[in-house]
Amino acid sequence: MGVAPALQDAIARYADQQAGREYLVSVPLTGMTGMVEMDGMRFLGRMPSFAALADEDIAAVLRHVLAQFNGIGDADWLTPQWVAQIRSRGGSPGLTYAQRAKLARGQR
Ligand code: HEM
Question: How many other β-carbons are positioned within 10 Å of the β-carbon of residue 37?
Fold first, then answer.
């Protein structure tokens, strides 16, 4: 059991799908709880919410992680406006976890 999942080469598939783009922003906004499995490793932890950060900062961190660790340098959709839109819907750690379970398996 790990403490928190690695983000390197792990989240590119989310950027390919609309629901994944919503999910990616929801994770730092609400945090997340629940068991996730990645590369055969299980994580049962609690990611804290970073909702106190500004939309600009959340967008910047996610763009950085996508570009530097996941080879996606063209995430033009990932704007502060996009973060604001997802933020305005509300949400919770449990809802974000449920969102993750519904995501389709992407191409990468
Ligand atoms: C730069 C800050 C962070 C970003 C961008 C970030 C992003 C993410 C993302 C995208 C996931 C979902 C991975 C997936 O579905 O494949 C995730 C999960 C997770 N993160 Fe973070 N994270 C950050 C900081 C942290 C910190 C500081 C902690 C712990 C103190 C943490 C703990 C976790 C845990 C435990 C999970 C799995 C959640 C679960 O088991 O339900 N994260 N994070």
Answer: 10
The answer to whether the CB of 45 is under 6 A from ligand 1 is: yes
Q: State pTM to two decimals.
A: 0.91
Q: What is the dihedral of CA 63, 66, 69, 72, to 10 degrees?
A: -120
In the three-class reduction of DSSP (H, G, I as helix; E, B as strand; rest coil), residue 37 is classed as: strand
Q: What pLDDT band is residue 108 in, cutting at 50, 70 and 90?
A: very low
The reported pLDDT for the residue numbered 65 is 97
Per CATH, is 12-102 categorized as 1.10.760.10? Answer: yes
Instruction: Give the domain ranges of the chain.
Output: 12-102
Residue nearest to atom 1 of ligand 1 (CA): 61
Tell me what pLDDT residue 40 has. Answer: 86
